[in-house]
Amino acid sequence: MHPVSIKIEGKDLSDTEIARRIAAGDRNAFELLMRRYNQTLYRTARSILRDDAEAEDAVQEAYILAYRAIGAFRGEAKLSTWLIRIVVNEAIARSRKRSRRAQIIELSGAQEPDADLSEENMDEAAPEQPEHAAVRAQTRRLLEAKIDALPEVFRTVFVLRALEELTVEETAASLGIPVATVRTRYFRAKGLLREALAREIDFAYGDAFAFAGARCDRIVAGVLARFDDLQARDA
Q1: Chain mean position to CA 132
Q2: Per-residue pLDDT band at 169 (split at 50, 70, 90)
Q3: Looking at CB atoms within 10 Å, which of 62, 119, 162, 219 has the fewest?
Q4: Domain shared by 131 and 183, yes or no
Q5: Is residue 226 situated within a structural domain?
Q6: Rounded to whole angstroms, how far apart are CA atoms 208 and 175?
Q7: pLDDT tens per residue, range 50-89
Q8: Number of alpha carbons in the 13 Å side-chain half-sphere of residue 73
Q9: pLDDT category, 215, cuts 50, 70, 90?
């Protein structure tokens, strides 16, 4: 027999109370938990796996693992930190299974990747500029591609700090790495992104205020039309 669900007060419900209700079998509380942390966990998993579908699967599995262990949650750490640790472990496990021969850089590893390798594949050609209505979407896709190109140890720290706006201390606790390492990796990630985006801008300089194509044709046609009128008047 399933426990009766308790009506949830939404935003007024604390993480500790949500955890307690989930442990008691409250389905609504479990849904509230997922809606509260879906974006954070998805972005975290995505930063490791670099695949939308794989990240979604990892998040779903992480929630099931969290549900099974929620009774052991005592609130000694933030619930978000606890969940991030679960999804990080799940994503890393999936990454290993997907490519056992590939080198997997542990998030807790002390060794940083070589600088030259870190910047590898960060200079993809800039996409063609779309119409104004799609500029923001195109910019977002460009930024996502450059974040994907970051080394894993930088990428996950950057996602948690810049996108999810976790503090240095929260990020360190979530990933199980020192605070100083978080600061170093975040600083390096921002530097790599700035360099990559600056290269995109450099490539785009030649296309700025492009004059070929329809605009050029319109001006030529307009001037020739007026020229023909003048010729006719002078005839």
Answers
A1: 24
A2: very high
A3: 219
A4: yes
A5: no
A6: 42
A7: 988 899 999 999 999 999 899 888 777 889 999 999 999 9
A8: 26
A9: low
- What is the full DSSP assignment across 124-172? PPPPPP--GGGHHHHHHHHHHHHHHTS-HHHHHHHIIIIIS---HHHHH
Name the token pair of 144: 């996502």
pLDDT at position 225 is 80
Q: What share of the chain is helix, strand, coil (3-state, %, to 5)?
A: 70, 0, 30
Q: Is residue 2 situated within a structural domain?
A: no
Split into its structural domains, the chain has a count of 2
Question: Percent of the chain beyond pLDDT 90?
Answer: 37
Separation between Cα atoms, residue 202 and residue 218, nearest integer Å: 28
Are the beta carbons of 32 and 8 closer than 8 angstroms?
Answer: yes
Q: Which of these, 182, 164, 165, lies nearest to 173 by C-alpha position? A: 182
Residue bearing the bigger pLDDT, 218 or 113: 218
